[in-house]
């Protein structure tokens, strides 16, 4: 069984999601539709994937880019088919837009470490998460909840931090997958963009590393259970 991971920048990877997939015995393959040069086609057709993961990136879902339009179309087909889908940051915004919700600038950028409040502790992905957790953020946009979505987590600066549509579609605005190495890479890459001017304070890549790893393992491990359960038991 294999999932497709849609990657939008060379410094945005699966990171801790990859560890959860490997622990669950699920193979994964990157799809680099955002690459400037034509990327090799995935060996797996999207309709054949056991699940799909849409990662973050510096662009907006509102940008008039061919790959954005293509990914939204892929998402709409996957959701209609009942394929498990997970979106992180830009990925969550792609899911929201694919389902007809508005994506727009958040009143403030949310960059750095800040707590989220879990609103549905009974949800399958959030059942191992405390009522409040200090997690990593890096985004300037937010979204309205798609029709029929359940809000799962919120923060002081950005209300829509996590949502579920049905029992197979999840969007996370924050970054539980981030490792210190990836955060350091983003800090280096930001020298050209200057987004750190809007950070919530000094960004220490190691601030809550151990707990974020536990949160990641719980969240993504539960999502892998959904993928495995559907593949193994759906007639």
Query: How big a fraction of the residues is strand?
Result: 25-35%
CATH classification, class level: Alpha Beta
Q: Name the overall outline.
A: globular
* CATH fold group: Rossmann fold
- CATH architectural label: 3-Layer(aba) Sandwich
Task: Describe it.
This protein has five helices and nine strands; from the N terminus they run βαββαβαβββββαα. The longest helix is centred in the C-terminal third of the chain and has 25 residues, at 209-233. By secondary structure, it is an alpha/beta fold. The chain has a single domain (2-233), classed as Class I glutamine amidotransferase (GATase) domain (Rossmann fold). 29% of the residues lie in helices and 26% in strands. β7 (149-154) and β8 (162-165) form a beta hairpin. It has a nine-stranded mixed sheet, sandwiched between helices.
């Amino acid at each position: 069984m294999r999932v497709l991971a849609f990657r939008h920048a060379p410094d945005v990877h699966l990171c801790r999601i990859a560890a959860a997939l490997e622990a669950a015995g699920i193979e994964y393959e990157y799809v680099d539709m955002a690459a400037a040069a034509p990327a090799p086609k995935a060996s797996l057709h999207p309709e054949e994937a056991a699940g799909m993961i849409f990662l973050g990136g510096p662009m907006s879902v509102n940008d008039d880019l061919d790959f954005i339009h293509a990914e939204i179309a892929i998402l709409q087909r996957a959701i209609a088919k009942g394929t498990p889908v997970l979106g992180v940051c830009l990925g969550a915004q792609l899911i929201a837009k694919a389902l007809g919700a508005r994506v727009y600038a958040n009143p403030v950028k949310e960059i750095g470490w800040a707590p989220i409040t879990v609103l549905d502790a009974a949800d399958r992905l959030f059942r191992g998460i405390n009522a409040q957790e200090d997690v990593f953020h890096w985004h300037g946009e937010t979204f309205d909840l798609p029709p029929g979505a359940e809000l799962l987590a919120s923060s002081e600066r950005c209300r829509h931090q996590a949502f579920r549509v049905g029992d197979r579609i999840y969007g996370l605005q924050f970054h539980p997958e981030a490792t210190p190495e990836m955060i350091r890479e983003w800090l280096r890459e930001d020298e050209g963009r200057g987004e750190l001017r809007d950070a919530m304070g000094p960004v220490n890549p190691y601030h809550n590393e151990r707990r974020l790893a536990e949160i990641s393992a719980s969240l993504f491990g539960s999502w892998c259970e959904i993928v495995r359960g559907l593949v193994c038991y759906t007639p």
